[in-house]
């Protein structure tokens, strides 16, 4: 059975048996928290459990590496919406050890794209248009430095209120242990 068909079959049973009822909540996070985390499959259940989060507790934004790569991109927009429209009062950036974005090779990614059918002419055209594909696809060399950089980008965004603590953590994908890299309370002394 194909993945989509299996998902839809499960969904039918899920809805029919009313399993959704235990997940009911509203759009406002109960813990007034927004979390930017890596999309790593090992964190799907581990991250919320390790942080003590249940459905409805937080706004969870996921991408490759838990990175804000552009101050005007969709991740930053989502964090700002969480703060201004959805009552998030704190932000946690949570990266993890053994991340696929650690020392990723943009050339290898682009070589794989060409192998999968993307025309080399397309890459040439994008580069000629001023798109820095290598920079866009680059990950990071050190997870702690990456977390510090993302926290700094979020914390100092011109539209982010100064009273929002932005924390930076690294989680172990093996144990769920969290290590604090940036204590956002230290950067927001006006917070009680």
From TrEMBL:
Cofactor names: Zn(2+)
UniProt GO molecular function: carbonate dehydratase activity; zinc ion binding
Binding locations of Zn(2+): 38, 40, 96, 99
Domain of life: Bacteria
Cofactor: binding comment: Binds 1 zinc ion per subunit.
SUPFAM superfamilies the UniProt entry points to: beta-carbonic anhydrase, cab
Gene3D superfamilies listed in its UniProt record: Carbonic anhydrase (3.40.1050.10)
Family: Belongs to the beta-class carbonic anhydrase family.
Name assigned to this protein: Carbonic anhydrase
Organism lineage string: Bacteria, Pseudomonadati, Pseudomonadota, Betaproteobacteria, Neisseriales
